[in-house]
Specification:
Layout lengths: L12 E7 L4 E3 L15 H7 L9 H4 L9 E7 H9 L10 E5 L12 E3 L3 H9 L5 E6 L1 H6 L6 E6 L8 E2 L10 E8 L5 E7 L2
Parallel strand pairs: 1-6, 1-7, 3-4, 3-6, 4-5
Antiparallel strand pairs: 2-8, 7-10, 9-10
């Protein structure tokens, strides 16, 4: 069984996200219903990564409330936050402290989350100095691009799908970052969960 723990010490930032074979985490409009949670993958997430499942799905999936795990904080970009809003879900991960990075959302209009308008990398560096557990980056690609130098671990649920365009896994200029593969988990549905850590 893979353990989500990657060690003690300074709080770590883990980017855990579903992606296509060609590196897209959402459609051009931000939707991601073409990347459903496959029935054979769900038990793995419930057992190993329960905190990455939205709060409203916990009862249906049999997740303890609140779920145990390594994270106490989740980061998301505006585009990652908005699909839930369209469904009337203003607090998608109520079991975690939620930060939404946006320069356009008025904080007073979104009391269920903390809206951050400043530099994401500087914010994460400051956040690491506060007491707490590890930090989960759930998306999106533009935010991941700004935080690439801060990401300690990348966990991708690689889906056997090619889409051609959309929101990239990481959206930034050419800037190679080499990672080390630490584990793989393959499922009959064709999904492969790959875990990487940052070199150095």
């Amino acid at each position: 069984m893979d353990s989500p723990d990657i060690g003690a010490g300074l709080r770590k930032l883990a980017y855990f996200v579903a992606t296509t074979l060609d590196g897209f985490i959402a459609a051009p409009d931000g939707s991601f219903d073409f990347l459903p949670l496959m029935p054979d993958v769900a038990p793995h997430l419930v057992a190993e990564w329960p905190q990455t499942l939205p709060t409203f799905a916990h009862a249906q999936l049999g997740v303890d409330s609140p779920p145990a795990g390594r994270f106490d904080t989740v980061l998301m970009g505006r585009a990652s936050y908005e699909p839930g809003l369209k469904l009337g879900v203003a607090s998608p991960y109520a079991h975690l402290r939620q930060y939404v990075f946006s320069r356009s959302l008025p904080p007073a209009d979104y009391p269920d989350v903390e809206v951050v308008a400043g530099d994401p990398a500087a914010f994460v560096r400051e956040l690491r100095t506060r007491p707490g557990r590890d930090i989960w980056l759930c998306g999106g690609g533009h935010l991941a691009g700004q935080l690439l130098g801060e990401i300690d671990e990348l966990v991708v649920k690689l889906n056997p799908v090619v889409v051609g365009s959309g929101i990239k896994l990481v959206d930034r200029g050419f800037d190679p970052h080499r990672l080390t593969l630490t584990s793989t988990r393959q499922f009959d549905s064709g999904v492969v969960v790959l875990r990487y850590t940052r070199d150095g």
